[in-house]
Structures
1.
Amino acid sequence: MQAIPIVHRPEPPAIAAPSSLGGYPTAVLCWLLSAGVYIAAKWVAPEMPPWGLCFWRLLLACAILLPIVHRHHGAMIALLRSRPLEVVAVGAIGLTLCQGMIYHGLNDTDATTAGIIMAMSPIMTMVLARLVLGEPLGLWKALGAVVALAGMLVIVAHGNIEALVKLRFNVGELWIVGSAFCWALYTVLLRRSKFGLELLPLVVLLLGAGALVALPFHLWEIANDERSALNAHGLLALAYLAGPGGALMYYLYNKSVETLGASRASMLLYLQTLFVAILAYLLLGESLHDYDLVGAAFIVVGVVLATVIKPKAVPAKA
């Protein structure tokens, strides 16, 4: 999950349903490319520092997409002039911190485990939306959040109750939990901010803001991290992260939202976890641990409780 803005738009009208079928392959490809980001970042982690990956991915993806949104440059500049701190803050949380934490975490944990933990983000979003925006949570959503949280704790503690009691966690998985929280907070802040800009130009602005915030971290790495020099593997990974896994992925998500609507396009996000597991097995030789399977089962049950089961409507009194 790469911190794509969730912008609420009206769902496509019923008469457009047949043409909307074309949006599903677009959305599936989007989440497949997003899953590839985890694989590329994990593959190059021993040779490329996390903030370097974060900075260059954001900067290059922004540069690739900037000409595509040229018709919106005036509105983008106007938004930057009127609300610069908000744009930078949202970009920092959702793109700089969210992605930087993922890359940090992949130094110490599997890509498969990271993908499963990131599936918690929508549940975290529901809870934060209740706290920040006052959106109703309801019994089933609250229960789903608790069950999914239990699944995340199983994964982070590697299924070891003693480690859970004594708060002995894998540092890599804690970074991923932090990333999932940043993504959820980012989504809620976008709902609250209501920037009034179309999705793709807004993404481009936030990519630029995220790169600006990531720059000081990257400069620190250049001075202190021996992995800061780009080599062939780093360039290859960065080419994927910025191109297919960056600019193209954001573009495809924008198209899927236009066709399917934000809610349906976003629900397909859970495919990312499946794709990460498959790609990690095929390309990195990873396998699912027992605690991954147990934790994933809890998270799936939590997601079903929170998003599928609807409370019964109370009939209005005469």
Note: The CA atoms of residues 112 and 296 lie 11 Å apart.
2.
Amino acid sequence: MDPRNQNSDDLTPANGKRSTSPFPLPTSVDEIYDCWSKVGVSGDGTCPELTKFVHCRNCPVYSAAAAQLLDRQLPTEYRRGWTEHFSRQKKLIVAGRQSIVIFRIQTEWLALPTRVFQEVSERRTIHSLPHRQQGIVLGLINVRGELLICVSLGRLLGLEADPARDKTNAMYERLVVAEWQGKLLTFPVNEVHGIHRYHPEELKEVPATVAKAGSSFTRDIIAWENKFVGCLDEELLFSTLNRSLS
């Protein structure tokens, strides 16, 4: 693969990809013949040296051409362009002052303040209680040696179960351990996204057209990843749950 003393206006790398730099170096260099794009692996593959080197990147001609490209002088426009790029004032993104944990129950994305969450773990066996089969209370769960009451937020909020969807997304199911006024309780969810920080002005009022049974527990909504998340009223929610346990 011998170099030829010609000029080339197209020094496309052997992988066929061009630079995405906003200030690319000029591609025309004297005394470099890009044989790799003509008779090499990016060309018609007729170079006899391919039988020896297999790929152009293993050929000393290709390495010598790369060295020439790296040793050339930087154009004034190139240096100036990058200097201006890095000297621009950066736009600082101010993190939100408040945080919530976003989770999913059935098809609804919901959120509660981060402070009420004690732990998020894998789903565990629920030990049912007598005469509590159809209510909000699902039973008891052993969490680190302590028996905690497990409740169904889905039933409280009126969210219907979808067996087909639940079976498909079973791998994402989690158990949430929450604390409210010194009392611990647990509830299963279909998925937990995690902590999301936001500014109070991002909260929007619940539309009047929302007619779901659980809408009374939704205090605000917030936009997140092209979805609307219902921010639950933790005081109303947990006070209702505590009354159902008495």
Note: Residues 98-245 form a domain with the OB fold (Dihydrolipoamide Acetyltransferase, E2P) fold (CATH 2.40.50.180).
3.
Amino acid sequence: MKSTFRTALFTVLFGIGSIISANAQDATTILKKMDDVMYSAKDMTGKNTIILIDRNGKEEIREAIIQQKGNDKRMFRFTSPASQAGIAVLSLPDDVMYLYLPAFGKERRIASSAKNQNFAGTDFSYDDMESVPFSVKYTPKLIKNEANVFVLELTTKGRSDYSKIGVHVNKTSYYPVLMEYYDKGNTKVKEAKYTFKKIGNYWNAAEIEMTDLKKNHKTKMQMSDVKYDAGLTDDDFTVRKLKQ
């Protein structure tokens, strides 16, 4: 009788363990596939229209150029209006990030502890602007398997102001549809809605709408004139280039 009980208990526990292990593996695979979609090109250049929308619906429009190489190098530079032109941020491997402000004429390295701050008045933080695969920064857990999306819960492997990030991943093409950001009190404080379009062989984030739910403020980033695999080199992602 005891032997039968132990066998049944082992079977149940083994089954539960297998399910947990399978879900963990599924979550890891899904997140890596999402990274593959977002960082599939050798490099990318494009124009970015930034639309800031306040709680009254008033809009402020800015323009920028963005360059990306691989999954760990990114340059983002404002080109207009004149008050913002030249402000740039450079993301490099190993948690290295620089901000350039033309008014001061020199770059400033952004400390890891300061990456939760908003970038140049937008609703995107420096952390959001960083070029690092999600599978490197976060540990995923599969929460739901819905009709059209996988819902993952991401917890940071390092330091973060977020307790978790909920990610809705398209089940067919594996690009993100929605990201929900929660503070340490598990209150949702921001959300990002993604619109992807196919350009050649690659899926491009044609628009990202980031909403600060506390401030009731939005920032839309809209991509245009996107070119892939143009032959960018590491020399295009240096502090010297940042200051030009």
Note: Residues 2-38 form the longest helix (37 residues).
4.
Amino acid sequence: MKSLLRILLAILLPPVGVLLTVGFGGAFWLNILLTLLGYLPGVIHAVWIIARRAPT
């Protein structure tokens, strides 16, 4: 359920979804940069980070 909420946040505000998943790490700052360069790359990166870190 938490992953679904994070993915929804990633679609609306990509850096927030990454922040809730990995904290203030390199992936968060990369996502900020990608989101500033274009909304879609930020969303793709955020969903990828959340899906990769989701518990199996």
Note: The helical segments are 2-12, 14-22, 26-37, 39-53.
